Amino acid sequence: MGVAIDIRGAEKRYVGRKGETIALDAVDLAIEEGEFVAFVGPSGCGKSTLLNMISGIIDISLGTITQDGEAVRGINRRVGYMTQADSVLPWRTVADNVALPLEYRGVPRAERARRVSAMLEMVNLTGFAHAFPKELSGGMRKRVALAQMLVYEPKTLLMDEPFGALDAQLKLVMQAELLKIWQEQHKTIVFVTHDLHEAIALASRVVVFSGRPGRIKHIENVPIPYPRDVFKARFLPEFEQAYDRLWRELAPEIEHGEEM
Ligand SMILES: Nc1ncnc2c1ncn2[C@@H]1O[C@H](COP(=O)(O)OP(=O)(O)OP(=O)(O)O)[C@@H](O)[C@H]1O
Asked: Which residues form the ABC transporter domain (predicted)?
């Protein structure tokens, strides 16, 4: 197993009307192939900025990010990205939404149909191929977004609070499904969340960012073996210990809020 994503001295400065904002400062992190890493930190510490830089949507100001040994320049085609707002189009059916990334890549129609139906089966949406997004529940929409991200088989998944809007029970169901997919398909996952329980239940490492400018403050290895049961994991003593350590690191950052 090698390094999937290598972040070295990463810095991001935004220049706006009010002057310059240092969103991220001197971030060093190597994410191994097949790892599940969670990012936590106060609002505005640059978590989304870092995902955007890994995906190549925005440029890095200083430092380097490499994916599979190659510097990320421009859109990074090796990652699948699920942002907070899902990209499900209301005028397309579920199947046509899932097919979208394959259409962009010029995959022929027959192969598209085959891959879309396999993907819908994987996310338990087979009976909804011809439904429109407005006919779906919140959880089903998330599954469409998940299928859309997975359909072109990226090795690395970037997920920015993908389950943030779901109720607690549905969140657990989606977490369990994601862990299953991660284990079956040997993906590398970088997962941003505000929910410490979610970070510990899913990730092998939890990275805590400080308030702005975002720096890595602490990295916690979660000593809970896989396969994990997200429903039961939180009752393990290892979970509670990890939670205590992480909360001690995170709480002061949240209390200080953003440095204005
Ligand atoms: N395009 C931009 N122009 C100027 N400043 C920006 C821009 N995008 C983000 N910022 C600033 O950079 C900082 C980091 O933002 P970012 O969205 O990455 O944080 P975050 O940790 O993902 O926050 P949240 O948890 O609230 O989603 C914030 O202070 C934000 O205001």
From this structure: 7-236
Average pLDDT by stretches of 10, the chain with 260 residues:
94 91 95 97 94 95 95 92 86 96 92 95 92 92 92 94 88 93 94 96 97 94 96 96 97 73
The tokens describing 230, both together, are: 């997200």
Residue nearest to atom 26 of ligand 1 (CA): 43
Q: What is the ipTM of this complex?
A: 0.95
Contacting residues for 77 by C-beta, under 8 A, at least 6 apart: 154
44 Cβ below 6 A of ligand 1: yes
d(CA 160, CA 194): 10
The correct CATH number of 3-78+155-259 out of 3.40.50.300, 2.60.40.10, 1.10.260.40, 3.30.9.10 is: 3.40.50.300
Q: Where in the chain are all domains bearing CATH 3.40.50.300?
A: 3-78+155-259
Which atom of ligand 1 lies nearest, measured to the CA of 45?
Answer: 21
